[in-house]
Amino acid sequence: MSGILDNGVGDLLADCSICPRLCHADRVKGTGFCGGGLKAKVALVSLHPWEEPVIAGEKGAGTVFFSGCSLRCMFCQNHEISHGHKGIEVSDERLGEIFYEQQLRGASTLDLVTPTHYVPQIIRGLFFAKKKGFSLPVVYNSSGYENISTLDLLGDIVDVFLPDLKYYSEDLAGEYSKAPDYFRVASRAIRKMVQLTGAAVERGGILQKGVLVRHMVLPGARKDSMVLLKWLWEEFGDSIMVSIMNQYTPAYKALAHPKLKRPLTTFEYDSVVDFALDLGFTRCFVQESGAAREEFIPKWTGQGVETFHI
């Protein structure tokens, strides 16, 4: 980590292997598989009230939405930024200012959304933020598709890991996200996250340390969801938190997919929730019907990226 602070991000990005794609792109001169280059690209800075209560608190999570992604999810609601790369490039020092400004707005946490491909820049950004007095819990809100070596860089940086666990099936992961190795990679990553943070710890209703695993139930895939939840329970029990999401909305390429073009049914979602409760999960967040609405998808205006405003 000292090399990142002393020498910048160039050494890691000149032959990039930050994410499991291992594309070895020279991101100093161009972009990698993720679409990321030398500078972090940010699409939106906001107070987000719709994260889990232990992340959002009273005023909202201090979300920083990064552009680009190492996955290719055909149902991605954020495809304009994840695949279309809409956003604004910022220096590492400006990134640190953004982090600190979220604290000034009263955010409960700093919520780094899709951060994987910008880990070196985030580490430097947090260095600058802490010089200003930044002290919020840092939430690493990712797809779960992570390299262990990259997570090792975050041991003293991240307080809360908020990974997705999307698929168990290689077929689903390959078809929907072009990552057939997803479960093998993500399961190892989540074990590492739990090792880094320990059991989940709250203070004042806000998660201070630990892992909260998100799983969004997909149409026609409730049995896959159950396999994932069984794995999580057998591995971690109630030492982690789990969020079972009911917000699937057909979008992007899913609108033309025979299985994904329809909404999730109440039966599909409720059966997965009942299965989780029967396993024994007590630290489990569920969503009410009505969570799957397009109005909950942010507008990628670039707000808060270049200038500070309340």
Please render the helix and strand layout as text.
Layout: H1 2-7, H2 10-13, E1 40-48, H3 53-56, E2 61-66, H4 79-82, E3 88-90, H5 92-104, E4 110-113, H6 119-132, E5 138-142, H7 148-152, E6 160-163, H8 170-177, H9 182-197, E7 201-203, E8 206-216, H10 222-236, E9 241-245, H11 266-279, E10 284-286
Parallel strand pairs: 2-4, 4-5, 5-6, 6-8, 8-9, 9-10
Antiparallel strand pairs: 1-2, 1-3, 7-8
Helix pairs in contact: 5-6, 10-11
In short, what is this structure?
With 310 residues, the chain is an alpha/beta fold. The protein contains eleven helices and ten strands. The chain has helices at residues 2-7, 10-13, 53-56, 79-82, 92-104, 119-132, 148-152, 170-177, 182-197, 222-236, 266-279, and strands spanning 40-48, 61-66, 88-90, 110-113, 138-142, 160-163, 201-203, 206-216, 241-245, 284-286.
Cα distance spanning the termini: 32 Å
CATH level 1 name: Alpha Beta
Total of DSSP H or I helical runs spanning 4+ residues: 11
Q: Quick one: how many beta strands?
A: 10
Q: What count of structural domains?
A: 1
- Write the CATH architecture name: Alpha-Beta Barrel
In this structure, how is the largest beta sheet organized? 10 strands, mixed
Unreliable stretches: none
SS content category:
alpha/beta
Helix content: 25-40%
Beta-strand fraction estimate: 15-25%
Shape, please?
globular
Radius of gyration, in Å, reads 18 Å
Task: Please provide the ordered H/E string of secondary-structure elements.
Answer: HHEHEHEHEHEHEHHEEHEHE
Mean pLDDT metric: 95
What is the CATH homology-level superfamily? Answer: Aldolase class I
CATH topology-level name: TIM Barrel
